[in-house]
Specification:
heterodimer; A: about 140 residues; mainly alpha; about 0% strand; B: about 150 residues; globular
């Protein structure tokens, strides 16, 4: 699966649109993921996961920042996320299935806050991008 | 049998009561065909699916989307009996239509995004949970009679 020029342009467009809300959307994405897919909470036993948790806000910011980084270096996502890829492989070892769940929740957040921006074409490009990010983060697992 | 809390039932019913089945159905199916283009393999008789614009405007896509979401309404009406409700449809999808059940999961995820875009903040995390659970149960029921 390869990102076309259109995909890259669509993704960059979305992220420039949401850059000022990135942290907020990152936190909401995580909250929705924990609520919708409770099994994802197993990776955060050390977190306060109540609504409004400062830890979830902070972690949402990290996730959003990483996605923005990937979008800003969309021609070399593997390079941009190399350290994160190492971290997930060596330390975090989040099962690959969970990246899809996070991606789904991110798309839901986009649909809620920017429904008119999430045209079917943009939706397709974003979905591909999120798959690509997940692939990079799990690429060194074995 | 799936257990639904009173809150989950209420969240499902409340969203469903406001859904325009024709519009949402058409949009969900169109998005499925656009976001996951390999799903077009089941619709070679639908005519022009050559671009997102063609897909969105395709009257067969619209009609079939309405049909699919109308059928989904049966699950909403029969939350405590979804397996039985979809037994025949499950056989049909296996024996006649030859649809990989993974596609039911894909469509379910797309439907969630369509609902989110229409209901915005009213599509709370609790709502998303209830609906994600429902689409999962429907997908499971549709796959249940496969052999």
């Amino acid at each position: 699966m390869v990102l076309s020029a259109n995909d890259k342009s669509n993704v960059k467009g979305v992220f420039s649109k949401i850059s000022s809300h990135a942290e907020e959307y990152g936190a909401e994405t995580l909250e929705r993921m924990f609520t919708t897919y409770p099994q994802t909470k197993t990776y955060f036993p050390h977190f306060d996961l109540h609504h409004g948790s400062a830890q979830v806000k902070a972690h949402g910011k990290k996730v959003a920042t990483a996605l923005m980084e990937a979008a800003n270096h969309i021609d070399d996502i593997a390079g941009a996320l190399s350290k994160l890829s190492d971290l997930h492989a060596q330390k975090l070892r989040v099962d690959p299935v969970n990246f899809k769940l996070l991606g789904q929740c991110f798309l839901v957040v986009m649909a809620i806050h920017h429904p008119s921006a999430l045209t079917p074409e943009v939706h397709a490009s974003l979905d591909k991008f999120l798959c690509a990010v997940g692939n990079v983060l799990t690429s060194k697992y074995r | 049998m799936v257990h639904w809390s009173a809150e989950e039932k209420q969240l499902i019913a409340s969203v469903w009561s406001k859904v325009n089945v024709e519009e949402c159905g058409a949009e969900a199916l169109a998005r499925l065909l656009i976001v996951y283009p390999w799903t077009q393999r089941f619709f070679s008789s639908f005519g022009n699916l050559s671009s997102p614009t063609a897909i969105i405007g395709n009257p067969k896509v619209r009609a079939h989307g309405k049909k699919v979401l109308t059928s989904f309404g049966e699950a909403v009406k029969n939350l405590d009996n979804i397996k039985v409700t979809y037994a025949k449809l499950s056989e049909l999808h296996c024996e006649k239509l030859h649809v990989d059940p993974e596609n039911f999961r894909l469509l379910g995820d797309i439907l969630i995004i369509v609902l989110a875009s229409h209901f915005a903040r009213d599509f709370t995390p609790a709502c998303q949970f209830a609906w994600q659970k429902l689409v999962g149960v429907v997908a499971h029921a549709l796959a249940r009679k496969y052999h």
